[in-house]
Amino acid sequence: MAQSQSSGPLRGLRILELGHFVAAPFATRLLADLGADVIKVEPPGGDPVRGWGEQIDGKSLWWSLHGRNKKSVVLDLKTDEGKRAVLDLAAESDAVIENFRPGQLEKLGLGPDALRAAQPGLVIARISGYGQDGPYRNRPAFGVIAESMGGLRYLTNHEPGANDLPPVRVGVSIGDSIAGLYAAFGVVAALWRRDRAGGSGRGQTVDVALTEAVLSMMEGMLPEYGKLGKIREPSGGGIPTASPSSAYPTSDGWILVAANSEPLFAKLAALIGRPDLPTDPRFTTNRLRCQSRDAIDGIIGAWTRQFDAATASQLLTAADIPNTKVFTAADCAHDPQFRDRGMVREVEDPILGEVLHAGIVPHFPEDPGAIRWTGPAVGAHTAEILASLRRDPTDRAA
Amino acid sequence: MAQSQSSGPLRGLRILELGHFVAAPFATRLLADLGADVIKVEPPGGDPVRGWGEQIDGKSLWWSLHGRNKKSVVLDLKTDEGKRAVLDLAAESDAVIENFRPGQLEKLGLGPDALRAAQPGLVIARISGYGQDGPYRNRPAFGVIAESMGGLRYLTNHEPGANDLPPVRVGVSIGDSIAGLYAAFGVVAALWRRDRAGGSGRGQTVDVALTEAVLSMMEGMLPEYGKLGKIREPSGGGIPTASPSSAYPTSDGWILVAANSEPLFAKLAALIGRPDLPTDPRFTTNRLRCQSRDAIDGIIGAWTRQFDAATASQLLTAADIPNTKVFTAADCAHDPQFRDRGMVREVEDPILGEVLHAGIVPHFPEDPGAIRWTGPAVGAHTAEILASLRRDPTDRAA
């Protein structure tokens, strides 16, 4: 494998991305953030995700982040030269991450058998909507459908009967990103197995389905249904088993208050001038408060409504009650903790100038990795990479 | 390290959990599902999460899943014996995963220095609300607060002005689980670095903050704000840049329909008896449809409303239009794809009998791991584990 110039715990790894849209590129962003060298293969027109979201002069702001630390190589996988180059790249890679529809890579002659003929140690992560087998295998995959099938969308709603609006989307492609994170985890697990002392050197396949990635997050939903026939229901801004804990209105946005222990509830009651509440028979225990949720939330909301969010938050924080403004993009961008930890940082983009990026998660204090460069132009590294492949293999090994 | 009897790519690893509630135990569940041996240290009363959610005879259904494949050891970390046992266990472990408040382990004399004195190769993953340093380090952490600070809660809402209800919680502790998944990824990345050929043998620290784990999922939110001052806004059931794509009402629940390409929109228009729609000047392109979202969603909703969800889904699927009922627990439990892939499966629990569990994600077809046992009783393995520690170290090595 090529010697890496990067830092981070995964430096020295080489990952080939045959991906598009969100899930596979998110997985490779995570690996690249921790130091892996990632080569992204794109079709002649580029990954369609480059056209998503806000643009400046045709340059995508999201792409600056989504494509960071990767090299972009344009290849036409329908041509023999394109296929040959993919196999040559696979021969020098530790892992391939792809999110074509199941069967598509095989149709192109780039299935696991062909890739492993080029490199027997290759780990291959395949991300799809429903998995590589089973009756739904061939159905088209969309993140919103996976979130709905995994049980997440049903719960992202107000209490039954609260209104007739549909359950809401989380606002980002959370199913895709969670699947991408699972793929990154699976790839590193397979590489640990391959590369540890006494390891087989063999690369495994990792099969990640968006639907399953979402379902795996659903806590006690399945055991509770299976044993008690209980269908978990949405609970709006609150938590079914904790009160008070919800988002409350202020004059300029929502504030999240979590005061669902007895000491916290007593502090909150004192703060809002209602020291009678903890002895009110409706509110003496968390269980009772959950049953009288509307009443207690109404009282708290009437108090928060008098202030702007910053003032309400100051008062609550001074009283030692866990709270936060419900952060918008602006709040995240200016938050002192995110700034202090490098989790919101300015990054220099050669075309866009200074761009705000999210930092590197998880944080390795002793070897944190780096944002080496922002999302490159389509094919920015095609010449460099193809030249390296054309060199004599003996040279390459050296 | 002790020889493992398990299967899965992480067999042979030994993980010590000093965790409680959701995030750290979710991380160890993922590692144990892939074959790692996990020892969970609990206080004399047990992890409080055992009391959360629905119970049968005092046994938690969620715990059956949340605690699966782990051994439970009760230790009082405030006593010298308890501390000694933790250090002895650390000496035989590859990684520790903890989610105490920052500084708490150090106060107990069980900080990284003490743990690494027992085992220099130890990887230590620390999960907290805001991270191990920075101005908010000492604030109490709650999942709902992290989701709000990371920008997720603000977007989980209807369009501004659609109603006056608060933005909704996702319905599960998604911030905790995403942080747990990042911790599992970070631990395996650190172990790959430690254990590969030529590795240093040194264990690194992995610092995971719930707030940061959420923020890292927010796609182009930060770059778009930083460059254009644009604050991403919630968009209810839909996607701001795709139409039609939303949840629509049926007589017995919501159905998700994603027909936001021209061919899919034409198919949908034909199916609902409105072949005029694709040439209606309001709807000829995706961009125009996004601007006339209420109109197009109203027309589609009037059609879906005539059917139950199963019938609507059959009609849409026959017309090749991506759709799914918005799944409840019951729908997930009976889905043929989840069943076929083992992603919904019955597991034998010694106390609860047959319990429904989510399967193992990601799926390793060649070495899938196993659900070896369900969440054990508090301290079920205390005697066994303490006896193994008391044995002569020479015996242990053998």
Question: How would you portray this structure in words?
Answer:
Two copies of one chain form a homodimer. In chain A, helix 1 (23-33) packs across helix 8 and helix 3 (80-91) crosses helix 5. The longest helix of chain A is centred in the middle third of the chain and has 22 residues, at 174-195. With 398 residues, chain A is an alpha/beta fold. Chain A contains 18 helices and 13 strands. The model of chain A has no long low-confidence stretch (mean pLDDT 95). Chain A has helices at 23-33, 61-66, 80-91, 104-107, 112-118, 143-149, 152-155, 174-195, 210-215, 221-228, 262-271, 286-291, 293-304, 309-318, 329-334, 336-340, 382-390, 393-397, and strands at residues 14-18, 37-42, 55-56, 59-60, 70-74, 95-98, 123-128, 205-209, 245-250, 253-258, 323-325, 344-349, 353-358. In chain A, 38% of the residues lie in helices and 16% in strands.
How do the helices and strands line up, and which of them pair or pack?
Two copies of one chain form a homodimer.
Chain A: E1 14-18, H1 23-33, E2 37-42, E3 55-56, E4 59-60, H2 61-66, E5 70-74, H3 80-91, E6 95-98, H4 104-107, H5 112-118, E7 123-128, H6 143-149, H7 152-155, H8 174-195, E8 205-209, H9 210-215, H10 221-228, E9 245-250, E10 253-258, H11 262-271, H12 286-291, H13 293-304, H14 309-318, E11 323-325, H15 329-334, H16 336-340, E12 344-349, E13 353-358, H17 382-390, H18 393-397
Parallel strand pairs in A: 1-2, 1-6, 2-5, 6-7, 7-8
Antiparallel strand pairs in A: 3-4, 9-10, 10-11, 12-13
Give the biggest sheet of chain A: 6 strands, parallel
CATH fold annotation of the largest domain in chain A: Rossmann fold
Write out the strand line-up for the largest beta sheet of chain A, numbering strands in chain order.
Answer: 5-2-1-6-7-8
What is the level-2 CATH architecture name of the largest domain in chain A?
3-Layer(aba) Sandwich
- Structurally, how many domains make up the residues of chain A? 2
Average pLDDT rating of chain A: 95
Quaternary state of the chains: homodimer
Low-pLDDT sequence parts of chain A: none
Molecular shape of chain A: elongated
Structural class of chain A: alpha/beta
Determine the CATH superfamily of the largest domain in chain A. Crotonobetainyl-coa:carnitine coa-transferase, domain 1
